[in-house]
């Protein structure tokens, strides 16, 4: 979660509170710093409106042009026109300062639930430098198309569709059972994971959960 806030006390308080509630916050105090930090791993942005090098409106427009990441404005600006402007340009919520932490956490979870539900229908999946377009059946690593076997592609898609969830070997074997009835055994799964890792340049986001299975997870 990316936080862009120029008030040091608010930034520190939000960072500590969010970490205590199970989130992985990344703190920034300017638009320039936010642009350097914004990556495919960011799942939500908490954004102040008034920043030293521009406005939250400008940064919101910048990130929305890159991908539809959820944005929640945190600002003292309570003018109706500002609220309408922020929501109309794609912000997912608008919270006026001062606010209660419990309310903020509730709003964050509500936005994440909505976006997660929408993600289930998305045809383009991301994790770090890895992208899969299910409609085109193409995978990329850092913008370069990957040459994957059918089994490797299905495995990568399963990992991305279940990102941040541990999948047991049994679950993966069930999901990889070919539509034509071709059986994928335990040894095939091990070899496929190994070859997929190599083609993805051994990404740190693909974790082996010893004795259980695997997990594709966003980097902190």
Short description:
This protein is of the alpha/beta class and 220 residues long. The chain has helices at residues 8-20, 31-37, 56-66, 80-88, 101-119, 150-161, 169-176, 186-199, and strands at residues 2-4, 26-28, 45-48, 50-51, 54-55, 71-75, 93-96, 124-127, 130-133, 138-141, 144-145, 167-168, 206-209, 213-216. Strands 2-1-3-6-7 form a five-stranded parallel sheet, sandwiched between helices. A four-stranded antiparallel sheet has the order 8-9-10-11, with helices on one face.
Strand content: 15-25%
For the sheet with most strands, the description reads: 5 strands, parallel
Helix content: 40-55%
Could you spell the SSE succession in H and E letters? EHEHEEEHEHEHEEEEHEHHEE
N-to-C CA distance: 9 Å
Oligomer kind:
single chain
**Roughly how many Å is the radius of gyration?**
20 Å
Strands, count: 14
**Strand-pairing-aware structural class:** alpha/beta
Low-confidence stretches: none
Widest sheet: strand ordering: 2-1-3-6-7
Mean pLDDT, to the nearest integer, reads 86
Q: What can you tell me about this protein's structure?
A:
The modification 4-aspartylphosphate is found at residue 48. Residues 122-218 bind DNA. This protein has 220 residues and is α/β, with parallel strands linked by helices. Helix content is 42%, strand content 21%. It has eight helices and 14 strands. The protein has helices at 8-20, 31-37, 56-66, 80-88, 101-119, 150-161, 169-176, 186-199, and strands at residues 2-4, 26-28, 45-48, 50-51, 54-55, 71-75, 93-96, 124-127, 130-133, 138-141, 144-145, 167-168, 206-209, 213-216. Strands 2-1-3-6-7 form a five-stranded parallel beta sheet, with helices on both faces. A four-stranded antiparallel beta sheet has the order 8-9-10-11, with helices on one face. A three-stranded antiparallel beta sheet has the order 12-14-13. α6 (150-161) crosses α8 (186-199). The radius of gyration is 20 Å and the shape is elongated. 22% of the residues are buried. The model has no long low-confidence stretch (mean pLDDT 86).
């Amino acid at each position: 979660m990316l936080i862009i806030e120029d008030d040091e006390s608010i930034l520190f308080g939000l960072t500590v509170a969010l970490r205590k509630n199970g989130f992985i916050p990344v703190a920034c105090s300017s638009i320039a710093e936010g642009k350097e930090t914004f990556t495919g791993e960011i799942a939500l942005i908490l954004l102040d409106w008034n920043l030293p090098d521009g406005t939250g409106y400008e940064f919101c427009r910048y990130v929305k042009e890159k991908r539809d990441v959820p944005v929640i404005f945190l600002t003292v600006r309570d003018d109706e026109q500002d609220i309408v402007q922020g929501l109309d340009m794609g912000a997912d919520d608008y919270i006026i300062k001062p606010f209660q932490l419990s309310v903020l956490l509730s709003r964050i979870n509500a936005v994440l639930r909505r976006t997660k539900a929408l993600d289930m229908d998305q045809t383009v999946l991301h994790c770090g430098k890895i992208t899969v377009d299910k409609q085109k059946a193409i995978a990329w690593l850092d913008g370069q198309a990957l040459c994957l076997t059918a089994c490797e592609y299905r495995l990568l898609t399963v990992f991305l569709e279940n990102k941040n969830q541990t999948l047991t070997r049994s679950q993966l074997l069930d999901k990889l059972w070919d539509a034509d009835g071709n059986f994928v055994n335990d040894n095939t799964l091990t070899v496929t994971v190994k070859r997929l890792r190599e083609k993805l340049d051994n990404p740190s986001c693909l974790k082996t959960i010893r004795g259980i299975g695997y997990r594709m997870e966003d980097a902190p």
